[in-house]
From TrEMBL:
<dbReference type="GO" id="GO:0016137">
    <property type="term" value="P:glycoside metabolic process"/>
</dbReference>
<keyword id="KW-0862">Zinc</keyword>
<dbReference type="InterPro" id="IPR003737">
    <property type="entry name" value="GlcNAc_PI_deacetylase-related"/>
</dbReference>
<dbReference type="InterPro" id="IPR024078">
    <property type="entry name" value="LmbE-like_dom_sf"/>
</dbReference>
<dbReference type="Pfam" id="PF02585">
    <property type="entry name" value="PIG-L"/>
</dbReference>
<dbReference type="GO" id="GO:0016811">
    <property type="term" value="F:hydrolase activity, acting on carbon-nitrogen (but not peptide) bonds, in linear amides"/>
</dbReference>
<protein>
    <submittedName>
        <fullName>PIG-L family deacetylase</fullName>
    </submittedName>
</protein>
Length: 237
């Protein structure tokens, strides 16, 4: 018996807001591929360019390369609109400037759903989350409300947007919902493989996309009636 509900799919547009290149690819990209195949319009906004993500590569070289890899990664799951902000990788701070940038993106794109990463202190299984993920996820949740208040960030010159139905946080330890990605799993693998330079610098299970993603998808699938699935914490507005 499933302990996760199906993510509602009665919407047509979404905005993904994450901290780094590769964040959505470690689990959530299978859902993105499923939804773009349904004809849903999805855009990405990344808080940084991932310039501090590869120990053996100078940030000035790493950032542009990871931008290229993220654009290719998004193309693998049917996404062509990808925006990069210039918050500093590794030391992204929760606060009004971050909320302002995300509220601006929400007002520009006017999505029905906002998708972000895990903003809880830990991952499923108990591993410690990192500060950038927490700051970006929490600022995204707050920015959804900010975007709908015309008296906040008036200087943006953008009309408020109150059309977001809910926020989805991928890979949360408090996941409540899931999406069947059996048919879109291969696209999710290709999306992660596009981060070639990043993967080459990794070691351990996370450096091998297909078995790593499959083990996660099978584990969620066992909680969701079988098959391959990815999980989300769903927050209703």
């Amino acid at each position: 018996m499933s302990d996760l509900e199906a993510v509602p799919e009665d919407w047509s547009s979404a905005l993904v807001v994450v901290a780094h290149p590769d964040d959505m690819e470690y689990g959530g990209a299978g859902a993105i591929a499923r939804w773009t195949a349904q004809g849903k319009k999805i855009a990405y906004v990344l808080a940084c360019r991932g310039e501090a993500g590869i120990d053996t590569m100078e940030p000035e070289v790493c950032g542009p390369l990871r931008v290229e890899e993220q654009i290719a990664s998004c193309a693998a799951v049917g996404v062509t609109e990808v925006e990069f902000l210039d918050h500093p990788d590794g030391v992204i701070e929760y606060g009004v400037p971050l909320r302002r940038d995300f509220a601006a993106a929400i007002r520009r794109h006017r999505p029905e759903v906002v998708i972000t990463g895990n903003f809880r202190d830990t991952w499923p299984g108990g591993g410690l989350n990192m500060a950038d993920h927490i700051a970006v996820g929490r600022a995204t949740v707050d920015a959804v409300r900010d975007a709908g208040n015309r008296w906040i960030f008036r200087d943006l010159g953008l009309e408020p947007w109150n059309g977001v139905k809910y926020v989805l946080a991928a890979s949360s330890p408090l996941s409540t919902h899931a999406v069947d990605i059996t048919d879109s799993f291969e696209a999710s693998v290709e999306s992660l493989r596009a981060h070639k330079a990043y993967l080459e610098a990794l070691s351990g299970d996370m450096a091998n996309p297909e078995p790593f993603l499959k083990s996660m998808a099978e584990a969620v699938g066992q909680r969701f009636g079988g098959g391959l699935a990815t999980s989300f914490e769903l927050l209703r507005l």
